[in-house]
UniProtKB/TrEMBL annotation:
Protein name stated in the entry: Beta-galactosidase
Protein species of origin: Streptomyces yaanensis
UniProt entry keywords in alphabetical sequence: Glycosidase, Hydrolase
EC number: 3.2.1.23
Domain Beta galactosidase small chain/ per the UniProt entry, residue ranges: 691-952
Region (Disordered) residue spans: 613-638
Family: Belongs to the glycosyl hydrolase 2 family.
GO molecular function: hydrolase activity
Pfam families: Bgal_small_N (PF02929), Glyco_hydro_2_C (PF02836), Glyco_hydro_2_N (PF02837), LacZ_4 (PF16353)
C-alpha cells in the first residue's frame, strides 16, 4: 500500500506562482488613502518540515503566548532561529525540480492587530507583502487567502471583507524551500523570512488601481509629452508645467529632461474620484538607435555597479536610511548606474534613484544557475510548465516599477541559461513597455534582447567587441555592448579598472559596465567580526566568494571604490602641465561643468606652497579646453615640484556638500632628485659586531642589527605576499591561479643561504642565495651597505637563476622587524590609500600620515593589503627611509605568514614587532577571482633588479 503524504502542502512544490493574489500593479504611496504598517514584532514558531504543524494557528483565538518573536521585516535565520547558508550557484538541496527536501524549515508568523479608530468604514482593503522568501501561505481571521512565491516581488490580497475593528489575526506560514527556490539561485545567502514590509492599504471607492506614467522627451524640440494611463479615470495635474489633463490624454510642453546627471523631477498628482496619488515625473526617452543605447538623443556611458541588497545584521531587510546611504555613497563616488542584481530591489530604492539620479537596470528575480551542473537539463526556463511563473515574475517587476524614470532597461534575470520561458518574458515585456530596452546576459546571440551584454570578458575581448570584430549573429553585431558584470571586487582589487575605462571611452559601441559588486555580504558575527560561507556549518558553501564588494559589510569604502571613483571621474585633466596649460575635458553625457568649481595647487616635495582657483569654461559634454595655469611659484627649494588640479562641487547638492572632490589630476614640474650617499665611511669589524656609520651588523652573518638607537631585526629579501583572493583565482580558471603556482614553487618558504660577508674599504657586502627547497630556481641576492657617517645605504641586487619564465614574483623587496612601539607613519608618496601596479589611479602624490593600524585594509578574509605606492621616503619607528627608486611601503603588526594563515580578521593579533615592507615591485592584482588576471604589463617578472634604500635615525 502506498499513500501520499499531506496534500495540503502541494502548493510548496507547485510550479505555479500561487493562488489568490491580486494582479500586479504600480507601487505607490497614496496621499490620502489610509494605510497601516504591520511591520514590527510578530509571534514566531519554527518547524522542521512544511507540514509538521497543522494550520490551526491561523484560527482566531489561537494562543501563541509561548511562541518566540521575530521582527518583521527580517529573516528568522538572522534572529536566532536556524542559520543562513551561502552557496554561489549550487542548489543547497537535491536537484529534482520542482521537488524540495522534506526538511524544509517553515516559519509560522502571527500578528494580531487593531484598525486605527479613524480607519474608514467604507471601501475595501488590500494587504501587501513586499518580499517574502521563498513561499508563503496566509490567512486573515481564519480565512485562507492563498499562497505565493517570488521572493523579491510584491503580492497583494483583497481583505476588506475580512477586517474587523480590532483583534484581526494575520497568520503567515513561510517555507524556506519551494518550487520557487529553483528560480532563485542567485549567488547570495539563502535567507528565509518576511524580509520586506507588510502593509494594509485602505482602498476607497473610486481609488486608483494601476496607472502608467508615460513621460517622454523630444531632444530636438525640447518638449516633453506626458500621458498617464489609469485603470480608473481621473485627472493629472503638474503645477510647475501648468498641466491639468484627463488620464489617457497626452499633453506636450517644454520641459527640462530627466537624466542621471540632471535628475529633474516634476511633482504631479493623479486624482480619481476616490484617491490622490502623488507623481514624480521625469521626462526622458530611451531608444536603441544607430546601435547605441540613447537617452534623450545621446549615447550614455554606464559607470555602474551591481547592487545586492545587504546589511551585515539585517541581511536583505533594508531600511530607508541604508538604501539612501548606498545611493549617496554611489553618487559621491561618481557612479552613475546600478544593476539591481539579481532581483527588483525594495521599491524605495528606485525612488531614491529617481531623486538623486542613477540609471537603473532593473533585474527580475530569476536565476537557475545550478542547472549548469547538469548541462542545463531540466532548466525551468526551457520548460513550458514553468512559463506562467516566469511571466508572473516579469509582470510583477514591470508593473511595480514602470513609473520610475531611473529604470532604463529591464533585465530578465541572471545566469538562467536560455529557453522559451525567457523568450516569453522578453516578448511580454516588449509588448507591455516599448519605452525601455530589454537586457539578459545569458542570451549570447541577443535573440530576445536589445543590448549585447557579457560578464568578465577580458580587456582584449572587450577591445575586439569595441572594434566590431567579435563576430556573432548579425543582430548582435548591430547592438551596443555593456559588461553587466566586470572587475570582480573580491578582496584586494579590482585590478585593471583604468584599462577597462580606457576601452569604454575609446570605442563607441562600448557603453560601459557594472562592477561586480557593490557590497561585501559579510554577516556581523561575534566569533569572526564578519562571517562568510562555511561559518555556519553549511555542508555546501562557497566561502568568502560572498564578500566581493566595493564597500565592506558596514559600508566603509574599500580602496577599490576609491579607485573606481578616480577612474570614472566626470572631468578629466590631461596634458603634461609643462607648457603651463592643462587640458580639461567634460566626460559627462548631459551636463556642462557649471556644477563644479576648479582649484589648482602647487606642491614642493609633497607640501602645498600655493593654491588658488582655476577658471574653466563650462564646456558641453565631451568638450575640452586648454586651461592656463598660473606662473609657477618661484620657490622650488630645489625639490620635486608638481601641480595638482581639482574639480569640486561648487555648491551643496542633494548628494554631496560644496567642496566635495569629484576629480583631480597631477602634473610634475621638476623631477625628484634621488638620494645620494657618498661612501665616505668604511665598515669596522669588532669582535661580534661590524659597524658602518650609524649602523651595526652581526659580524658572522652580516645581518643588520641597529641603525643609531633603532633595533632592526631579520632584514632580508622578501618575495612572498599573503595571496589575495585574486591571486588565488577561481577553480574554473586554474591557469591563472598564481598562488597555486607560487606555493608549488615554494615562494612562501624561501630559504636564505649565506655565501659571504665581505668587508671592503667603503662597503659591507653580504652575498646570499634565496631559493625554495626542491627546486632549482633561486635569486642570487647581494646586500651592499655604504655610509657617509650619518646615513646608511643598502643596495640590493637580485639576479634570478634557473627558469622563472612561467613564474611571476608576488613581490620583490625587503622586510624587517621594528619594535612594537613603532606606530606613527609619515610618508611622501602615493596615498592616502593602498595601491598596487594596476590599482594605482587613485594614489595621489603627497605627504601623508597614518598609524600602523590605519595602514591596514580590513578585507573580510585577511590577505595582502595596505601597500602605499611611489613612496619617496617614509618615517616609522625612529627611522627615515628614502628609496631609490620609489618603492611600495607597508607596515603591519603581524608577519606575512600570519596574514596568510588567517581566515578572519579576528585571527590577527598584534605581535612583538612591527613588520615593515619596502618593495621594489609588486605583482599586479587583476580580477582572477572571477575574470582575467593582471594584464601582462603589471606582471612582476623575475628579472635582474637593483634597488636602494637610505636609512637614517630621526633625531
Ligand atoms: C557571476 C554571477 O552573475 C554573479 O551573481 C556572481 O556570482 C559573480 O559571478 C561572481 O561573484 S557568474 C560568473 C561565475 C560567471
Amino acid at each position: 500500500m502506498s499513500f501520499r503524504t499531506n496534500t495540503a502542502i502541494d502548493y510548496v512544490e507547485d510550479v505555479s506562482p500561487g493562488t489568490g493574489a491580486l494582479p500586479p500593479r504600480a507601487w505607490y504611496a497614496s496621499s490620502d488613502a489610509a494605510s497601516l504598517s504591520l511591520n514590527g514584532d510578530w509571534r514566531f514558531r519554527l518547524s522542521g518540515t512544511a507540514d509538521a504543524e497543522d494550520d490551526s494557528f491561523a484560527e482566531p483565538g489561537y494562543d501563541a503566548g509561548d511562541w518566540a518573536e521575530v521582527s518583521v521585516p527580517g529573516h528568522w535565520v538572522l534572529q536566532g532561529h536556524g542559520a543562513p547558508i551561502y552557496t554561489n550557484h549550487l542548489y543547497p538541496f537535491p536537484v529534482d525540480p520542482p521537488r524540495v527536501p522534506t526538511e524544509n524549515p517553515t516559519g509560522d508568523h502571527l500578528r494580531v492587530f487593531d484598525l486605527p479608530s479613524d480607519w474608514p468604514s467604507d471601501g475595501g482593503a488590500v494587504l501587501r507583502f513586499d518580499g517574502v522568501e521563498s513561499c508563503a501561505r496566509l490567512w486573515l481571521n481564519g480565512t485562507d487567502l492563498g499562497e505565493f512565491k517570488g521572493s523579491r516581488l510584491p503580492h497583494e490580497f483583497a481583505v476588506g471583507h475580512l477586517l474587523k475593528p480590532s483583534g484581526n489575526v494575520l497568520a503567515v506560514r513561510v517555507h524556506q524551500w519551494s518550487a520557487g527556490s529553483y528560480l532563485e539561485d542567485q549567488d547570495q545567502w539563502w535567507l528565509p523570512g518576511i524580509f520586506r514590509d507588510v502593509t494594509l492599504l485602505h482602498r476607497p471607492a473610486g481609488a486608483v488601481l494601476d496607472f502608467f506614467v508615460h513621460a517622454s522627451y523630444d531632444h530636438v524640440s525640447g518638449e516633453g509629452t506626458l500621458k498617464v494611463d489609469s485603470d480608473v479615470d481621473g485627472r493629472v495635474t503638474v503645477p510647475a508645467l501648468d498641466i491639468d489633463v484627463a488620464t489617457g490624454e497626452p499633453v506636450t510642453v517644454v520641459v527640462e529632461p530627466w537624466t542621471a546627471e540632471t535628475p529633474k523631477l516634476y511633482d504631479g498628482v493623479l486624482v480619481t474620484e476616490g484617491e490622490r496619488v502623488p507623481l514624480r515625473i521625469g521626462f526622458r526617452t530611451v531608444v536603441l538607435e544607430d546601435g547605441r543605447i540613447k537617452v534623450n538623443g545621446k549615447a550614455v556611458l554606464f559607470k555602474g555597479v551591481n547592487r545586492h541588497e545587504w546589511h551585515p545584521e539585517k541581511g536583505r531587510a533594508l531600511d530607508l536610511e541604508t538604501m539612501r546611504a548606498d545611493v549617496l555613497l554611489m553618487k559621491r563616488h561618481n557612479i552613475n548606474a546600478v544593476r539591481t542584481s539579481h532581483y527588483p530591489p525594495h521599491p524605495a530604492f528606485l525612488d531614491l534613484c529617481d531623486e538623486y539620479g542613477l540609471w537603473v537596470i532593473d533585474e527580475c528575480d530569476l536565476e537557475t544557475h545550478g542547472f549548469t551542473e547538469q548541462a542545463w537539463r531540466d532548466n525551468p526556463v526551457d520548460d513550458d510548465r514553468w512559463t506562467p511563473a516566469l511571466l508572473d515574475r516579469a509582470a510583477r517587476m514591470v508593473e511595480r516599477d514602470k513609473n520610475h524614470p531611473s529604470v532604463v532597461l529591464w533585465s530578465l534575470g541572471n545566469e538562467a541559461g536560455t529557453g522559451r520561458g525567457l523568450t516569453a518574458m522578453a516578448e511580454w515585456i516588449h509588448g507591455r513597455d516599448a519605452s525601455r530596452l530589454v537586457h539578459y546576459e545569458g542570451d549570447i546571440n541577443c535573440r530576445d534582447t536589445d543590448v549585447y551584454s557579457r560578464m568578465y570578458a577580458s580587456h582584449a575581448e572587450v577591445e575586439q567587441i569595441g572594434r566590431g570584430l567579435d563576430g556573432g549573429t548579425l543582430k548582435r553585431r548591430e547592438l551596443p555592448f555593456i559588461l553587466c558584470e566586470y572587475a570582480h571586487a573580491m578582496g584586494n582589487g579590482p585590478g585593471g579598472l583604468a584599462d577597462y575605462q580606457r576601452l569604454f571611452e575609446s570605442y563607441e559601441r562600448l557603453q560601459g559596465g557594472f562592477v561586480w559588486e557593490w557590497i561585501d555580504h559579510g554577516i556581523k558575527d561575534e566569533r569572526y567580526g564578519y562571517a562568510y560561507g562555511g561559518d555556519f556549518g553549511e555542508e555546501l558553501h562557497d566561502g568568502n566568494f560572498v564578500c566581493d564588494g566595493l564597500v565592506f559589510p558596514d559600508r566603509t569604502p574599500s580602496p577599490g571604490l576609491a579607485e573606481f571613483k578616480k577612474v570614472i571621474e566626470p572631468v578629466a585633466f590631461t596634458g603634461d602641465g609643462s607648457d603651463g596649460t592643462v587640458r580639461v575635458t567634460n566626460r559627462q553625457d548631459f551636463a556642462d561643468l557649471s556644477a563644479f568649481a576648479f582649484e589648482w595647487s602647487y606642491q614642493v616635495d609633497g607640501e602645498t606652497v600655493e593654491s588658488g582657483s582655476l577658471s574653466v569654461p563650462t564646456l558641453t559634454p565631451g568638450e575640452s579646453a586648454d586651461v592656463k595655469l598660473p606662473e609657477p611659484p618661484a620657490d622650488n627649494r630645489g625639490g620635486e615640484a608638481q601641480w595638482t588640479v581639482r574639480a569640486v562641487l561648487a555648491a551643496d547638492t542633494p548628494w554631496g556638500p560644496k567642496d566635495h572632490p569629484v576629480a583631480w589630476g597631477q602634473f610634475p614640474v621638476t623631477a625628484r632628485v634621488s638620494p645620494s650617499v657618498a661612501a665616505t665611511a668604511g665598515p669596522v669589524a669588532g669582535e661580534r659586531v661590524i659597524t658602518l656609520g650609524p649602523a651595526s651588523f652581526d659580524a658572522r652573518t652580516g645581518a643588520l642589527r641597529t641603525i643609531g638607537g633603532v633595533e632592526v631585526n631579520d632584514l632580508r629579501l622578501d618575495v612572498w605576499r599573503a595571496p589575495t583572493d585574486n591571486d588565488d583565482g577561481a577553480s574554473w580558471q586554474d591557469d591563472i591561479c598564481y598562488s597555486l603556482l607560487w606555493r608549488k614553487f615554494g615562494l612562501h618558504r624561501m630559504r636564505h643561504r649565506l655565501d659571504a660577508v665581505e668587508l671592503g674599504d667603503d662597503a659591507l657586502t653580504v652575498r646570499t642565495r634565496v631559493a625554495p627547497a626542491a627546486w632549482e630556481v633561486g635569486l642570487a641576492t647581494v646586500y651592499r651597505w655604504t655610509s657617509d657617517g650619518d646615513r646608511v645605504k643598502l643596495t640590493v641586487s637580485v639576479a634570478p637563476e634557473g627558469d622563472w619564465s612561467a613564474l611571476p614574483l608576488p613581490r620583490l623587496g625587503i622586510r624587517f622587524g621594528l619594535d612594537a612601539g613603532a606606530d606613527l607613519v609619515r610618508w611622501f608618496g602615493g596615498g592616502p590609500g593602498e595601491a598596487y601596479p594596476d590599482t594605482k589611479a587613485a594614489s595621489m602624490l603627497g605627504r601623508w600620515e597614518s598609524t600602523v593600524d590605519g595602514l591596514q585594509t580590513p578585507y573580510v578574509r585577511p590577505q595582502e593589503n595596505g601597500a602605499r605606492a611611489d613612496v619617496r621616503w617614509a618615517e616609522i619607528g625612529g627611522l627615515r627611509i628614502e628609496g631609490d627608486p620609489e618603492f611600495f611601503f607597508g607596515a603591519r603588526r603581524w608577519t606575512t605568514e600570519q596574514l596568510d594563515s588567517a581566515e578572519h580578521r579576528t585571527d590577527l593579533t598584534p605581535g612583538e614587532r612591527v613588520w615593515v615592507s619596502l618593495d621594489h615591485g609588486q605583482h599586479g592584482i587583476g580580477t582572477a577571482s572571477c575574470g582575467p588576471g593582471p594584464l601582462p604589463q603589471y606582471h612582476l617578472r623575475a628579472e635582474p633588479a637593483e634597488f636602494s634604500f637610505v636609512f637614517s635615525e630621526i633625531s
